[in-house]
């Protein structure tokens, strides 16, 4: 009762017998309770006593002239819900007591046993306080839930939460709009029950890994191909929900980045188109002109050898310089447009890369094609794969001091896999020496552009770079096109 005695209790006493009222007051006040009594005996006075709502406890007789305790109980429940109501009566039988408790009374005390009143009052006040605190906590929790729900619904991203079984426990408005389902129909389902494809299974596997390790993941790019064959890109974030140290689920955010990816790819494609144009101009323009000039020079060389042999050595030198210029022009053209679908495509370009790497860096670089026949690839996608191989071989030769490099291309099921393995000092040692890592980031970006991923491995000695990309993202088909706008 320490908490009860810290403040004056506001008690309404409904009793028509002045003597009984005095005994009740004495019984509660003898233990030091500070009480502000409002003693009434009519319905009108009783209503007035409850009107301001500042009431901590009601003590009421069961039978009064023209008024009764059950009517008083109903008035209390109407005007001051939650206030403890205790019957203090001398005429309350067992049946009436049960009826009173069923009607909502807190307890009852017989007048010939007033010594129980103190204990009953303390318990009633304590229970009322606990109910009030619980109600306040529930209201605060509901206010917080409403705030979170409002914030979630206002976001343009898809937001949902799952339990440890990967089943949805909450969704926002955007999730409802995208699925076209009712909110209550989404709850309890897994994502794989809404979208059935390989990407969704990968997302669920990633979610399970986050719950297992407790480490959040963010900015995970994933693509989906709709029934119309259009590719849409999304950025995924998975963060664990914790109850103290226990993980109870995940909050997942899905942001569509199709517009951004489309813009990035268009910018990159503009650069690629410009490079291909320059390469074509060098090969078909300047290269052809230099070749024609070389033929004319050959004819002149033959004529001079007969008529003015003293100039033959100078003409031979000019012819040699011209041949080198033609070779340089062809090399530049190939470098600007390395993958030519009409001249062997990606395999031929990688074969030429291996030969060029061997010549330039004086090491052994080989190319091997494995697996089934490579399907037709879109030129821009094939160029991305080539550039990854080019960056990996350059890093191995320049920074890792490799003596041998193996380039391998294979098709595995639905994926294309490129691996570049060297016997150099290893990626970690190279980074420790301060070599820039921008090339690694560019390779990662190219892999994401292809809807795939890239791994940098160190299998004992050297480094292995492995690019894996889905074939349907590399083929020149409608599945390669990207849709603009929300899914």
Q: In summary, what is this structure?
A:
The chain is of the alpha/beta class and 487 residues long. Helix content is 49%, strand content 22%. It has 4 domains: 134 residues, Response regulator (Rossmann fold); 102 residues, PAS domain (Beta-Lactamase, 2-Layer Sandwich), CATH 3.30.450.20; 79 residues; 144 residues, Heat Shock Protein 90.
Descriptive account of the structure:
The chain is α/β, with parallel strands linked by helices and 487 residues long. It is built from 15 helices and 17 strands. Helix 2 packs parallel to helix 3 and helix 12 packs parallel to helix 13. It is rod-shaped and about 150 Å long. The chain starts with 8 loop residues before the first strand and ends in a 17-residue tail after the last strand.
- The shape, in one word, is rod-shaped
**CATH class call of the largest domain:** Alpha Beta
Mean pLDDT: 82
Number of helices, where a helix is a run of at least 4 consecutive DSSP H or I residues: 15
Number of strands: 17
CATH superfamily of the largest domain: Histidine kinase-like ATPase, C-terminal domain
Estimated share of beta-strand residues: 15-25%
Largest sheet: 5 strands, parallel
The oligomeric status of these chains comes to single chain
Low-pLDDT segments, ≥5 res: 1-6, 478-487
CATH architecture of the largest domain: 2-Layer Sandwich
Q: What spatial order of strands do you see in the largest sheet?
A: 2-1-3-6-7
CATH topology of the largest domain: the name is: Heat Shock Protein 90
Helix- and strand-based class? Answer: alpha/beta
Percent of residues in helices: 40-55%
Supply Rg.
Answer: 42 Å
Tally of separate domains: 4
